[in-house]
Amino acid sequence: MSRTFRIATRRSKMALVQTNLIIKLLRAAAPQHEYVIHEVTSEGDKFMGDLKTIGGKGAFVKALEIEILEGRADMAMHSLKDVPGDVDLPDGLQIECMLERQDLRDAVVCREGVSFVGLKAGSKVGTSSVRRAAQLKMNFPHLDVVPLRGNADTRVGKVDSGEVDAAILAASGLRRIGLEQRICEVFEPDVMLPSVGQGVVCVESRTDDHELTALLKLINHADTYACMQAERAMLKALQGGCHTPIAAYCVVTANQNLRLIAMVSSLDGAEVLRARAKMPYADAVALGKAVAKDLLDQGADRLLAHA
Asked: Which of 74, 82, 103, 165 is labelled catalytic?
């Protein structure tokens, strides 16, 4: 039997592009069903101040979860990096579907004719991420790192208007909304480690909707899912969120092991702790916990408490 599935999403250009990507995959896997976009304005979209005061990046997620729990939507699209990793999902909800990870790197947007390496001392570089800010201060201490909020296209506009000289955004997000040509520099992970879940689109749904769960598993990317289990297990063990300078990325090696590399730093980037480990594919959660323990043994709890 056919069914109409409603997918909740934020109203931003990037969110809608990512939601339509999910719908495209679902239609290919199960064309007998209908898929309808259900647009929601989250608290994070309405509030332009410091996200820490309204619950961090979870402010982008909560409104969509309410739509699922109250039956107005069947599922919700999230950028995984926005889903809090230090707490469990609300009772009755699950994330059992993650699309293949796209470019996990951070990118720089500059005005036309300007290069990142050519920025003079004191140039303003905007970011809303404490992780990015700490690593910018660590690697480029001559630059002035300033807060910058808004959707990706809004932040690019603030570069063009001269509010900032450059902005740091996710490379994958810029590509998804057709702004790849605005990238003037891409940071490799050895320069700037990405956020947990960066580049990953996920779908949240009700645990009791078994038909939808089975459908979502058809479009789940197994390698991405395994890597995210490791990254998010580490984040939960550290009790870290978007307001803490934690970075990590996990990859599947040629012999089907998982390798996780992670970092915790002070807010000013002056003190940096790093850890890495490798475990079998099936031990993703254990890998995340092991890397977190290594960081905690080095004193990560002290840095995170200050943050």
From this structure: 82
